Amino acid sequence: MSTAVFADNQIGPSSPAIRIDGGMQFWAGLSYGGASLVNYLVLSGQLHISPAFIGMAWLAATFVFILFGVVLKVGTDRTLLNDPGFKTFRAVWGSLILGTAVLVAAVITLMIKFHMAANSAFVTAPIALCVYGIGWRMAAVMSRQKWLNALSLASFVCAIYLATLAGSPQQSLAYSLCLIVVAILPGFLLLIRRQTV
To answer: pTM of the prediction?
Structure first.
């Protein structure tokens, strides 16, 4: 059995808090929340367009998120971009987002293989909210901002709630509302505060 060796800069009680912001969370919530709202309007019959438009809305959301949240980093304090801790924070969130995309793709592929493709659209929202829960908990530990733990818990509760709505258009509406609470508002708050605790 080997013994793990930890670096001096490991995150722990004696290490300094890492500076964070909410840019990625804000843009992800805004773009995917908007796409989910379109999804709800189409599936509930309130927006009379081809259901094929739903896929285009999700692709557009992904483009908006990557452009504004990842590439241009709109809203992010430019003085943070060279901070090693901040880079670590963004790298971890980026890894969570990439992992979510791969997990969703794998689950949908399995559902298609087992002839359950009609229900595959309903797995994305609960998985995404679980990842938000993990991400906010990680952010709370890294930044020592305890209020982020509440967002983590709220994300997990939302994930379970969204799972109970699977199969109905209401899941898409609820997903949009959940993203306002656990992504858009806290992301915006972190962007305008630009502080660490």
So the answer is: 0.89
Summary count for the chain: helices (H), strands (E): 7, 0
Q: Which two tokens stand for residue 140?
A: 């709370």
Express each pLDDT in 110-155 by its tens digit. Answer: 999 999 988 988 999 999 999 999 999 999 999 999 999 999 999 9
The tokens for 160 are: 């379970």
**Domain ranges within the chain, ordered by starting residue:** 23-75+84-193
CB atoms closer than 10 angstroms to residue 162: 24
Indicate the DSSP class of residue 120.
G
Contact indicator for 22, 145 with CB cutoff of 8 Å = no
And the tokens for 20?
């964070």
C-alpha distances (whole Å) from 178 to each of 3, 16, 32, 161 are 42, 31, 11, 10
Please name the residues in contact with 122: beta carbons below 8 A apart, sequence gap of 6 or more.
Answer: 166, 167, 171
53-97 tens-digit pLDDT: 899 999 999 999 999 999 999 999 999 999 999 999 999 999 999
Q: Alpha carbon of 40 to those of 43, 57, 185, 197: distances in Å?
A: 5, 12, 21, 38
